[in-house]
Amino acid sequence: MTKSHFLAAGLAAGLALVAGAAVAGPIERACNKSDREAATRSLCACIEQAANMTLSTSDQRRAVSFFKDPEKAHKVWMSKSRGDDAFWERYKAFGAQAEALCGAGESASASQG
User: Fold this and answer.
1) Taking Cα atoms as reference points, which of 81, 82, 87, 52 lies closest to residue 66?
2) Which residues lie below 8 Å from residue 30, measured CB to CB, with a gap of 6+?
3) Is residue 20 part of a domain?
4) Does residue 85 lie in a domain region?
5) What is the mean pLDDT of the chain?
6) pLDDT above 70: residue 85
7) 10 lies in a domain?
8) Which string of b and e fits 39-77 if b means at least 16 CB within 10 Å?
9) Can you give the pTM of this predicted structure?
10) In this predicted model, what pLDDT tens digit does every residue of 21-67 receive, in sequence order?
């Protein structure tokens, strides 16, 4: 590989990192803003990936509210409405996906309320 190929590859990698940082999703942003000690940038980005795999945009917005007010998660969990139950099943799948994908263990569980 020539010097110009290395430079081009380096620039491409740098742009990919900048582009990735610029498009942080709602879960990643909320995770990064949280006061949880284990909430590193890389873990939050990974949890966002899990959210993108398992939650709709509106589900993600709803889940973000749990970071600000964990009591909301408890209310949804305790709710008897079909809509809340369906959301909670998707939210549990998100937590399991985050744990499997990120090794988030306690961090993913903590975000579940």
Assistant:
1) 87
2) 64, 67, 68
3) no
4) yes
5) 79
6) yes
7) no
8) beeebbbbbbbbbbebbeeebbebbbebbeeeeebeebe
9) 0.68
10) 457 899 999 999 887 788 899 999 999 999 999 999 999 999 999 98
More confident of the two residues 34 and 97: 97
Residue 82, token pair as written in the block:
């079909």
> What distance in Å separates the CA atoms of residue 80 and residue 101, rounded to the nearest whole number?
30
Residue 90: inside a domain, yes or no? yes
Would you say 31 and 39 are in contact if contact means Cβ atoms under 8 Å apart? yes
Task: Give the residue numbers spanning the domain of 92.
Answer: 27-111
Q: What is the mean pLDDT of residues 93-99?
A: 95
**Domains held by the chain: number:** 1
Residue type, 87: F
